[in-house]
Amino acid sequence: MAPTMVAQFAWKEKVYIKYFIANMISTMKFVLLISMLAVSVFAKSYNITVEGTIKCHEPFMFNMRIFVSYFMQHLELDKYKHDFVAECKDPTSESSEKQYRLLGKASDMLQSEVEPLLFFWHTCGFGGKGDGTCVCKDLGNISADLNLKLDIDFTGKGAMKGFRHCKQACIKAMTGDRTLYGGM
Known about the structure:
The protein is α+β, with helices and mostly antiparallel strands.
């Protein structure tokens, strides 16, 4: 092979490699663009705000957390991610009336609605100390932003209306059990 033919062959190889790399980069950009569009189309995101007052006949402590897509019967979250939305807590027991506000964003992949669940741990009725109790409230299926005013009055009847006992799930939600969420 003549030296000029070798040079021409090497030049053609460089051109082919540059073309191949440019083609790969544009293909990757296209795939990335399609992926971003798919996520924005198939995953709706909603703002969740839950606020109110908690009243007790004695000073107490509380912790509230909201998750979405929580399957109570299996005590596990969906396979794709843990769905922590918001938390509000008051670890002091100085007052018998407290304001709270939970703010967060909720989304569920490939779903047009989310199912937020409120976990509520409190020590009202336990002398403001001790283990307390833990209950849950299903906030329903939502397909728009949620602004909920939820006052809880332990001094009257029906304070826990709409709440249910879910001790095992609630404890895992409050402690951040890594076997349940894959880390918090």
